[in-house]
Structure formats: structure tokens, C-alpha cells
Amino acid sequence: METADLRIALFSGNYNYVRDGANQALNRLVGYLLRQGAAVRVYSPTVAEPAFEATGDLVGVRAMPIPTRGEYRLPLYLPARARRDLARFAPNVVHVSSPDPVAHQALTWARERDLPVLASVHTRFETYLRYYNMAWAEPVMEAILRRFYRRCDALVAPSESMAQVLREQRMNYDISLWSRGVDREVFHPARRSLEWRRSLGIGDDEVAIGFLGRLVMEKGLDVFSDTIDELRRGGVAHKVLVIGEGPAREWFEARLPGAVFAGFQNGEDLGRAVASMDVLFNPSVTETFGNVTLEAMACALPVVAAAATGSESLVDNHGSGRLIRPGAVHQFAEALRAYIANPDLRARHGAAGETRARDFGWDRINQAVADTYVRLIRQKRPNRR
């Protein structure tokens, strides 16, 4: 069997209605598979005005807005129309990308037909509870996720550190890597623009500490702002540059007086924004890979990040950035202080990060997923006979 023989039914909780790193990776994967001659059908909630155009054929499923997070939708069930479409499409492999009710139904549908199921892990859902004062429920959430993922034939994780967490949590025994790539045409040191910085009120000699991502509490906004407070108390001169939008923007702006909020950026504008930072600060512990970390590295920025899944597989501590114990505000501040005070250190660690980023090409990475589909189909064939 070759990649061109694949017929993949992909189930996503958010394929294109809100832009984030996970669904952009899924769209890139589908685009790659279609170019290789594979057939792909995507089942996901749809909205009247999605964040971007979907890659491939998209079939809507029934969904409802998530309470307190109305921009996201919870897939509830596969309507009869979608089930008929799925039967006509006749996939030879099923891919689920979030453990929602529709994914559970798709998993049952596939198992009844002895079709292989691959699950891709894009975020650490159990850690979200910490940001809603429900950390006590993490073991319960972990058990629910374990039941779902063990019913799948295999998992793919975006980083070795995340794969190791999944092994330790006993989520599955077949776990391989589906890493993330970076577009080197967009993310490159040459995109840096002093003119753009000046238009935002950032001086040429000011050190801009960057935040990049959706403005939601689970991205570590509290740790970020507490760390900036400590720098201010210590009289450390700096500027904060925030790239992104989200429901917590008003809260974040109130916590960071004097920060520059450049809003949502995309394409070449995003590459310019990232390259125009001086250091990226990423305190989040919810990522499984850390696309923003890789994008900053490709722009030759040193990265100060939480020592958590994703960043641990990308950042060389004391080589291309700093990995700090999650939530350790004083240590985060000290790491940032060192980069602010020492431009040679910033340049040296930034250059090392750019070299590392060259290893992440999208086609090679996405072919690894196609190879996993083929392997799972071959493993199922003896059972069918």
C-alpha cells in the first residue's frame, strides 16, 4: 500500500472556525496528503464565518458553544447526513484529533468495521483544569482520556517529551511522533523590522520581551504578568510586545500597563512581528509541542519557556534559551534579566535556536503520519482475513 491508496476520515473538534496551532497543523497535513494522491474527508463543526478557508472537503457535525468559551464549539453527535456521507466515502483509516463526543462515536463506528484508528494529541486537556480552580479533578480527566486513547490503535504526539508523558500516563502502547514544521519563508531573522517596532513605540535600543499566542488564561498569562511585575520592581528596562487576540485580552492589558498589544498577525506580518521581538517568553504548560517556540527559534530569538512538554524537546537549556520550572516567577525574571543585560548572549542563543529550527520541514514531518496510517492498515489486514 502507498500513500495514494489511503482514504482517511479525519474528525476534528476545530478544523478552521478558530485559528490555532493544532488546526493549522491538521490543514497542512490534509493539504500534503491530497498532494500525494490520498483521499481525505474532514468531519468537524462549521460556522458561517470561519477563521480561514478549510483545506479539503469539510462535512459539518452537530455542535454547541462551550460554556464560558463561546468561540469554541463542542461536537455533540454525527447526524444521519454525516453518517451516510461517511459510509459513502468508505475510509480505510480513521483519524481523531480531540477526545470529544463525535470522536467517541467515530471510534466506535471504526471498531465495528475493524478499521484502524489513529489519534493525534494536540493539547494537554487535563492541565486546563488548573486554570479554572479544578486541579483536584485532573486524575478524573486523565482516566477519561486514558479510556478514549486506549481504544485507539495508535497515538501520534508532537514532541518526544509529550510522547513520554503519554507513556507514563499509560494512554497507549503504540505512540510515535508527528512533530511540527516551520515555514522558513515566513519565519526568518531577515523579517525583523525596526521601522515596524518604531511605529509601535518600541525604540531601537529597547529589548522587547514577546508573548505570542491566543490570549487565554491557560497560556500562562498570570505567570507572564507576575514575571513582568518582578522585572519592573527590579528596575530592569524592557518593553513587552504581545502578539495575539483572545477573550482574556482585557484582563492581560490591565495587568500589563505600558505593554504594546499588536493584535492578531498572520502570514508575513506574523513573521515580521516575531522577528521584531528580542526574546520570546512562553510560560505555558498546556502545549504538547509549542509552535510559537519553534517560530521564535526560526527567527533567531532566544526563548525563555516553562520546562514542560513541547519546549523541553525544542529548547536547549543554556544553549538556545532557558527552561524554567513551571510557575517559578523569580527564576523566569532572572532568565529574562540575563538576556536583557547581555546582547551577545541573546545573539548566541538565538543563532543556536535558528540552527535547530532548520530540522523541522513540513513534508518530511507529514509523511511520517502517512506512514503510520499505512502501517496500521497493514497490521489490521491479518485480522480481517
TrEMBL record:
Lineage, highest ranks first: Bacteria, Pseudomonadati, Pseudomonadota, Alphaproteobacteria, Sphingomonadales
Chain segments annotated as coiled-coil in the UniProt record: none
Residues of the Glycosyltransferase subfamily 4-like N-terminal domain: 20-185
Provenance organism: Novosphingobium album (ex Liu et al. 2023)
Domain of life: Bacteria
InterPro entries referenced in this protein's UniProt entry, alphabetically: Glyco_trans_4-like_N (IPR028098), Glycosyltransferase_grp1 (IPR050194)
Pfam family, one: Glyco_trans_1_4
CDD domains, A to Z: GT4-like (cd03814)
Name used for this protein in its record: Glycosyltransferase family 1 protein
